[in-house]
């Protein structure tokens, strides 16, 4: 099948809007003023409600795709995102806006995991890992770009700022024009043809249970790591203002450093994975633990910013590693594994404040510095265990 640059761009364009559900957070104060009878917590939920409904729709996206086709399902999701994203521009009814945000999440969930299926079908080996890394990078770029544009358009009005979601329209057009449909049968996702398909189907049937067990371990790991990663978003501004070396603007800038590190990791993931291979996971844990430790000990905006960039880099090395891992294995249900990983990711992000609170209670943490230090210690422990496994258990298994 012809591999044009336009097909790659079209596959990545959808990822540009995947993590933009919370990008309208800057709108919350203005919307709260506009609808004074609506409780503030409900207004704030406009930023989180897409993630909750995304979790629901991502579980059924492959079932719908088998029914109406994979390409049509992606286009349906992009269409829902375009329409629901723009509804607040024209409607001045809070509950209609609230409902549109729910549909926005449903739309994202419909095509999010399917984009990985298309990448798995069209690409193999290093090229597949590179594309999954690029997908992660485009998610970061989209989140930063949309958040910036929201802030600029907010100077006109809060309703005008929702025009940012017109970005879903070119993604729809590009996908419709340049991405061919793919078959729904499991064998169609191997990226190989002929005799390889039969062999992989046989392997898949024999190893299905084993892969699923491993996937659940990945989901639990992802859930914990995402909660820790999100703590820098939730607590870095309070940390800086409490200690006295930064203000709210500095805290906002720190989040941009995270995005820069995340983008760099996404674009470099293919090369990183090729160079360090199975050690990608323990090294990602090591760097993430060191970055959170540096944030917790910092007394400088510059140091915190550099640590935040390392945090984004290491996290966005960890994420595509997991997705590449489950999509490169010939055992288990890769579609289901991808969907469940996305569920774990969004649950970890949504429950991060509660996870931090639980951590504070379990370890009796009395300061924000202690939170970051404890999370760093846990991640460094993950790194040590992972290194130990690859050094001692892995080689022994290979011999057996």
From TrEMBL:
Record field: compositional bias (Basic and acidic residues): 193-207
TM region(s), chain numbering: 49-68, 75-96, 102-123, 130-150, 162-179, 216-234, 254-276, 283-316, 336-359, 371-392
Main location: membrane
Protein's name in the database: Major facilitator superfamily (MFS) profile domain-containing protein
Organism for this UniProt entry: Trichococcus palustris
This protein's record includes keyword Oxidoreductase: no
Alphabetized GO MF terms: transmembrane transporter activity
Membrane topology: Multi-pass membrane protein
């Amino acid at each position: 099948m012809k591999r044009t640059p336009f097909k790659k761009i079209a596959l990545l364009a959808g990822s540009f809007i995947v993590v933009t559900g919370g990008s309208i957070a800057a709108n919350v104060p203005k919307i709260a003023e506009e609808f004074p009878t609506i409780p503030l917590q409900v207004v704030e939920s406009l930023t989180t409600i897409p993630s909750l409904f995304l979790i629901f729709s991502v579980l059924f996206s492959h079932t719908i795709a088998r029914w109406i086709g994979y390409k049509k399902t992606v286009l349906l999701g992009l269409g829902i995102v375009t329409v629901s994203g723009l509804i607040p521009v024209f409607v001045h009814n809070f509950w209609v806006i609230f409902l549109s945000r729910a549909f926005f999440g449903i739309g994202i969930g419909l095509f999010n995991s399917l984009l990985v299926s298309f990448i798995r079908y069209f690409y193999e080996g290093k090229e597949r890992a590179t594309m999954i890394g690029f997908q992660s990078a485009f998610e970061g770029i989209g989140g930063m770009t949309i958040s910036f544009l929201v802030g600029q358009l907010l100077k006109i009005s809060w309703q005008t700022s929702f025009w940012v979601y017109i970005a879903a329209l070119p993604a729809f057009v590009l996908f419709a024009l340049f991405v061919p449909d793919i078959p729904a049968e499991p064998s169609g996702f191997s990226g190989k043809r002929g005799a390889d398909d039969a062999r992989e189907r046989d392997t898949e049937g024999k190893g299905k249970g084993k892969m699923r067990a491993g996937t659940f371990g990945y989901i639990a790991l992802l859930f914990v790591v995402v909660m820790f990663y999100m703590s820098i978003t939730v607590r870095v501004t309070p940390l800086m203002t409490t200690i006295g070396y930064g203000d709210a603007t500095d805290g906002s800038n720190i989040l941009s450093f995270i995005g820069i590190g995340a983008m760099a990791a996404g674009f470099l993931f293919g090369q990183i994975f090729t160079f360090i291979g199975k050690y990608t996971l323990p090294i990602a844990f090591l760097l993430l633990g060191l970055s959170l430790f540096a944030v917790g000990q910092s007394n400088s905006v510059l140091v915190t910013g550099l640590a935040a960039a390392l945090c984004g880099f290491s996290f966005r090395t960890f994420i595509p590693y997991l997705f590449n891992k489950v999509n490169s294995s010939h055992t288990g249900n890769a579609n289901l594994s991808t969907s469940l990983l996305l569920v774990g990711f969004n649950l970890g992000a949504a429950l991060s404040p509660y996870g931090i609170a639980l951590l504070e209670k379990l370890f009796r943490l009395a300061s924000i510095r202690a939170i970051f230090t404890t999370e760093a210690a846990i991640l460094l422990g993950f790194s040590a265990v992972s290194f130990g496994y690859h050094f001692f258990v892995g080689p022994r298994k290979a011999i057996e």
